[in-house]
Write a structure and sequence with these properties.
The protein is α+β, with helices and mostly antiparallel strands. The chain is built from 5 helices and 13 strands. Keywords: Ligase.
Length: 244
Amino acid sequence: LIGRLMFELPEEMGLIAIAVRQTQGKGRGGNVWLSPIGCALSTLHITIPLHSNLGQRIPFIQHLVSLAVVESVRSIPGYEDIDLRVKWPNDIYYSDLMKLGGVLVNSTLIETTFHILIGFGFNVSNSNPTICINDLITKFNKEEGTTLKPLTTDCLIARTVTVLERLIDIFQEKGPNGILPRYYKYWVHSGKHVRLYNEEGPTAWIVGIDDYGFLQVHEEGKGIESVHPDGNSFDMLKNLIVPK
């Protein structure tokens, strides 16, 4: 639907498709993604000029969207301490324990404009077979004695898109440094260890992401290097490789 419409509309006009249930969704590497009722599911079309801060760093879009999902909840007064976080490169997590959603970005460059299709989905109110955002709110209420209300999928999709617009504006004005402090506030990786190359490879410490959105690690005696996933791991951070 979006693919047919996105080139027919003026560039300044946004376009979003929202689903209640998803039976033929796609994940990274062509994985099938099934989403029951209770999940916030949408595909958003935006345009980004090639000759702009974000146009020169397109991989950052998935990080901005992941951050927007987390902030859609944690920027609501009273909900700041709901333990929703981002996992590089494109996952939404409860603490560092369980995945609640993800982001998939496809881009097409036409002349000097990127047409970006952003698919994002996250579990708002479906408790089975995993956990959802409203479960985290219920847990928080029990532990803290608060009475925060459950959230709805339509509210969080709207808030995510609104937050994303602000994050894109900030990135276009200030570049990565305008966004990274907010991103690191919510990410799960600070000080974590990873293995490079394979399961017996050298240990490295995650230190951040570079100006182009790649993960940065510090291997003892070798300084800081940018890495990316090996493409074959179930866990995207299981074995990381250093580009030559």
